[in-house]
Amino acid sequence: MSDAYIVETLRTPGGRRKGALSGWHPADMAGEVLNALVERTGIDPAAIDDVIMGCVTKAGEQGFNIGRNAVLASRLPDTVPAVTVDRQCGSSQQALHFAAQAVKSGAQDIVIAAGVESMTRVPMFADMTVLAKAGIGEGPVSPRIRERYGVTEFSQFRGAEMIAQKHGLSRDDLDAYALESHRRAAEATRSGAFEREILPLEIAEGTHRHDEGIRFDATAESIGGVDLLAEGGVLSAANASQICDGASGALIVSERALKAHGLTPIARVVEMCVTAGDPVIMLEEPITATQRALQRSGLTLEEIALYEVNEAFAPIPLAWMAQLDADPARTNAHGGAIALGHPLGASGTRLLSTLVYALRKRGERYGLQTMCEGGGTANVTIVEAL
């Protein structure tokens, strides 16, 4: 079985809701990522076997197979096929897994795994509400599911509150974590740590080069002053991930393709894992998935230099670190989605880009990324920087 190598991985800078990237059609934004992957590697675009695109809200401008539309909006030949996948917030991480599986199996040699989400132009849940507003159907949670789990709907907000309560996390704990996310992201931006992974995009005002959501002037007082999302809870908009527009991607190839096309790998996919659990508390599954991935890989968490744990809500990485006894200094070392934004379908390969280049810059070997996902699933990917 062949190894799966990462030859290039990159992302756009995040754009705030109705912000810098709101003028970009998501197919065009994702197409720019495809173009850049080809340009930076020098690969013959006609040799690409497939494009696997993660996207969560597949309605409006993100409907009709956004993966294929991204190819058509790019400079890739129209002979390159594409598909769109949905593993909720882990969609592009799952795209990475599918690409690596195809390469490892020998079925394909060159695959792009990518993701895109314009949360400005295609608001979250738009795909679930359009028919409901028209009075058609009962929505995605069927009567049988409601009876089985005793809910009328599944809520990530409720799940995050349940995790905070279960693990004894206070509002102060969450706010302190959020402040640190902004601090780390601000420092990474100032130091140029993100420059290699970021693909600047042209906008009306010039060139968008930096993540727009970072609060460089964030303080404990400013974060603590944001209203709670629910009375009696601990979550606020300040300790949850930001709505964000963005795209990201990675070029995954076999050893055969490395030799045939004269490519130089920057990382290797070591282990991939997906698990599923309670769909009500929902967002706690990265703990179990990480344990499974470590067991399968034969590595210990201590042997892994850096961890990217998606900051959908502050309780997620806090509970993950507590349960796995993980080093906070290694966890989201350059900040996370609370500061950088969470462009849903694009976040998986966004985390990959940050992880791979942070490992390479520090001269470290192994990194791990994990993502909580709607419905109670979680992906884990372990990579080796080369």
Number-wise, the strands total 12
H/E series:
EEHEHEHEHHHHEEHEHEHEHHHEE
- Number of discrete helical segments: 13
As residue ranges, the low-confidence spans are none
**What summary fits the major beta sheet?**
10 strands, mixed
Sheet-strand content, in percent, reads 15-25%
> Ends: how far apart?
19 Å
The secondary structure category is alpha+beta
Percentage of residues assigned to helices: 25-40%
Shape: globular
Q: How large, in whole angstroms, is the Cα Rg?
A: 20 Å
Summarize model confidence as the mean pLDDT: 97
Domain Thiolase N-terminal: 5-255
Active site: 89 (acyl-thioester intermediate), 342 (proton acceptor), 372 (proton acceptor)
GO molecular function, one term: acetyl-CoA C-acetyltransferase activity
Organism: Salipiger abyssi
List keywords for this structure.
single chain; 386 residues; alpha+beta; ten-stranded mixed beta sheet; two-stranded antiparallel ribbon; 12 strands; globular
